[in-house]
Design brief:
Layout (H helix, E strand, L loop, with lengths): L1 H19 L5 H10 L2 H18 L3 H9 L6 H21 L1
Helix pairs in contact: 2-3
Length: 95
């Protein structure tokens, strides 16, 4: 019985993963289901609709645009990568 439930859940996740990105109500429904707070779910849905209306992009597309590498960021990226490498070296020496 437990194995069939797991197989069913895994297959449903595989089938429904294509629906997640286009579903604007998924976040508010999840919020409503977990917290039971209608106001928070409504605010989440409303803010997403306002962002989409004002910018023409979804909130996920806006975040991707902010995180996309730009030519101006190249020096900063080089510095950050250098610091990360130095920190990793120091942490490996401690272990």
């Amino acid at each position: 019985m437990i194995i069939t439930k797991k197989i069913f859940r895994i297959s449903m996740i595989g089938l429904l993963t294509g629906c997640v990105q286009s579903s604007a109500l998924l976040g508010p429904i999840y919020t409503l289901g977990t917290t039971g707070n209608v106001h928070q779910a409504g605010l989440s849905y409303g803010s997403d609709k306002v962002i989409t209306t004002l910018t023409g992009k979804s909130s996920l597309e806006n975040i991707e645009g902010l995180l996309k590498a730009k030519k101006q960021d190249s020096d900063l990226r080089k510095l950050v990568k250098k610091r990360i490498k130095e920190t990793r070296k120091k942490l490996n020496l401690i272990k």
